[in-house]
Structures are given as C-alpha cells and as structure tokens.
Amino acid sequence: MGIESIIVFLIVGAIAGWLAGQIVRGMGFGLVGNIVVGIVGAFIAGWLLPQVGIAIGGGMIAAIINAVIGAVILLVIIGLIKRA
After folding, report:
1. What was the pLDDT predicted at 21?
2. Overall domain count for the chain
3. Fewest CB within a 10 Å sphere: which of 8, 20, 52, 68?
4. Domain span holding position 72
5. pTM score, two decimals?
6. Taking the chain (84 residues) in consecutive chunks of 10 residues, what is each chunk's mean pLDDT?
7. Is 42 within 8 Å of 24 (Cβ atoms)?
8. Measured between alpha carbons, how far is 1 from 71 in angstroms, rounded to an integer?
9. Does some domain include residue 5?
C-alpha cells in the first residue's frame, strides 16, 4: 500500500467518523477518534452490507457512504454499551 492510499484511507475515515458523530449526537471522539471510528466503520460496513445484500457502488463517495453507515452502527453499539 502506497502513501497515497494511506492518506486517502485516513481522509475517508476522518470524514466518515465526523459525519457519524454528527448523525449520532454526543458520540464524537475528536479528530483521531473519529478517524479510528470511520476506519473501523468502513470494515464493519464492508463485511455487513454485502451480507444483507446492499451494494452502494464504487468510488470515493460510495466509500464514504459505506464507512459512515458502518461508523453509525459502531457508535450506536458503543452508546448501548456505555448505557449498560
């Protein structure tokens, strides 16, 4: 993986994490935390969405949408665990 790929990966993760933090209010984790949430969310969505038969497509926008969906799922799970 080249440096350009890593930079794009981090940018997508940051955008997805920030958007997920805006959607799930009160669950933002700062810049680094949002990047981590976005990246983990991308992996969650990459596994979960094909399992349920959802395919958004290819490209940068689709990658961000997938990562946001996964990050929102992750933040909801984290919120449920914190409440318990």
Report:
1. 86
2. 1
3. 52
4. 11-83
5. 0.84
6. 84 88 78 84 89 87 90 88 82
7. no
8. 23
9. no
